[in-house]
Amino acid sequence: MIPERKTRTVHVRDLAIGGSAPIAVQSMAATRTIDVDATMEQVRLLEEAGADLIRIATDTPADVEALAIIRSNTNARLSVDLQENYRLAETVAPLVDKIRYNPGHLHHHERSRSIADKVAYLVGIAGQNDCAIRIGVNAGSVAPDYAAKFPATPEGHASAIVASAIDHCELLDNLNFTNYVVSIKDSDPRVVIATNTQFAAARPDVPLHLGVTEAGMPPDGIIKTRIAFEQLLSQGIGDTLRVSLTVPFKDKGLEIHTGRQLIADIEAGRFRSVPKGFFEGLNIIACPSCSRVENEAFIDLAQDIKELTKNAADENITIAVMGCRVNGPGETDDADIGLWCGPKKVNLKRGTETLGAYGYDEILVRVREEFDRQVAGRSA
Question: What is the pTM of this model?
Answer without folding.
Answer: 0.85
